[in-house]
Amino acid sequence: MTAPATGPEPADPQPADPRRVYRDALLDLAAVDERVICLDSDTGGLESTFGARFPDRYVNVGIAEANMFGIAAGLASRGYRPYAHTMAAFATLRAAEQLKADIVGHRLPVRIVATHGGLSAAHFGSSHYALEDLAVTRALMDLAVVVPADAAEIEPAVRALHAVDGPAYLRLGRSATPSVHGGRPPFHLGRAGRLRPGTDVTVIAMGPQPVLMALEAADALADDGVSCQVIQIHTLSPLDSRAVLAAARTTGALVTVEEHRPRGGLGDAVAEAVGAHCPVPHRRVAVNGPVGTVVRGHREALEESGVSAAAIRAAATQVIEIGKR
Amino acid sequence: MGEDLRAVAHGLRREVVRMAGGPHGAHVGGSLSCVDILTSLYFDVMTERDAFVLSKGHAAPALYAALAAAGRIDAEELAGYTRPGSRLFGHPPQGLPGVEFATGSLGHGLSLGIGLALAERLGGGTGHVYVLLGDGELQEGSVWEAAMYAGHRALDNLVAVVDRNELQITGPTEGCVSLEPLADKFTAFGWLTRTVDGHDLGSLGKALGEPAGRPVAVVAGTVKGRGVPFLEGKASSHYATLRPALVRRALAALDAKAPA
Q: What residues does each domain of chain A span?
């Protein structure tokens, strides 16, 4: 587990657009590594950036995700480093078999860059929600899965994943969210980070809104006299099970928070990590409720479907109580 | 040359029949139908610069026989087909010499082939990529995503071969979900289409080998179970386990028509 971020507060804490930050990071990589190929499924924004600067290495396959993944596998088998771009919902279910068989099955160094993670495309409606993508990707052995918590983590995440030999899945949101980290955070692939120390309960959060909510909940719990540790997971696979287990041992109560259905994602990963060694009371704050019924903003949609600072606070109180019995 | 190729094809068919006599049988009909296509590719058309993807992965017996004849795997290994301890599964596994991608789920190979063709183009290479598809496989929508893209990009180093044996598991392709006019479909997608007798090694060599300035689709008319009378043209030959007596009968029928 890495130490709390201690960098200076940013001069301008304006939220940054995750897709723009990502594109800049990819351009920087492509400038120094000729193996980088940008595969696009006509997502919009890459043609005028990557396509304009590196036209020979920009491949827009059209609205055809399955074909894109097969092409990516073919290119990767010849030594290229394809970055394949689509939305999280389509990457992991529509083209799931190509992901499984062609890319992960051959352990090829394709990076799946999936935007519109979770409910971040809130006003688009349920077709564009990705609430099962982490269950799918976590089930695929040898696939690295990373969910940055804010824009500042995207560039270091991209650089870290670029060095991985096998396939990787990077889940991004659709629009800007407030910064979690002051300044530029340290980023260690596969390592959890402690955002707040605490002794009574640990909240383990992943993704932009869940991490922000976890910090808010920790503040509220402090007002209640509860010492709440907050751990951020950006690398879901491989999970930093040592850090998770240490949190279970030292605080004896866990809450996981994720922008995903409660099955198959962070909550299950944490339960797997601690269950065999140090089972402790554990509540999952996840998207439980119905989604896509009334238009809401991103955060409001999450709150209404079960993911909120209040839900985290309540869950933390519950697990502490259970632990006292 | 022609006689030599026919002798190779004959040898491949013998091996396919033997594999169908193994403990689990084999996709024998669709393996025998594409033997001449594989013979043409491996022993006439392809050079070491070229790549091959067996999109109809269930024709693995024919591929294994070709790889053994080409010296890529040991011919003695064929006897182990689908037996415990062998690496010769019913569908090609990754890691077998000559097999770049584990296939078997239909509709993947053409996209993989496009990736290889793009890589070849990016690297300034002159090799061609050959992808062998089944005709029933063309009912998979992903094939047409790939076909549309290859045509659009005018990938002139990509050749798709359709083993057009006109049969799938339940019967004729045209009775299941019709494919015709098949050549017109590829043409409409921007490919140069060649329709040939998929058992005429001379025609195959020409159709597969001549450049066209855009992707080439070779619709190779074939007979399922080709070479073994009791399997020919029958949907039931899609998958069969041949008892020893039938293996002998099949081999005798093949030998009777073998090149002198």
A: 18-171, 193-324
ipTM: 0.94
CB contact under 8 A, B122 and A64: no
From the list A251, A264, A172, A161, the residue with the least C-alpha distance to A204 is A251
- pTM summary value: 0.95
Domains within chain B, CATH numbers bracketed: 2-256 (3.40.50.970)
Which residue in chain B is spatially nearest to A78 when comparing CA positions? B119
Tell me the C-alpha distance between A178 and A180, whole Å.
6
The rounded distance, in Å, linking the Cα atoms of A39 and A74 is: 12
Fold agreement between A18-171 and A193-324: yes
Interface of A with B in 98-117 (CB under 8 A): 98, 101-102, 105-106
User: CATH for A193-324?
Assistant: 3.40.50.920
Chain A partners within 8 Å of B142 (Cβ)? 66-67, 70, 98
Q: For residue range A90-116, list pLDDT tens digits in order.
A: 999 999 999 999 999 999 999 999 999
Contact by Cβ (8 Å): B165, B29? yes
CATH number of this structure's domain A18-171: 3.40.50.970
Query: Does A153 participate in catalysis according to the annotation?
Result: no
B158 in reach of chain A (CB within 8 A): no
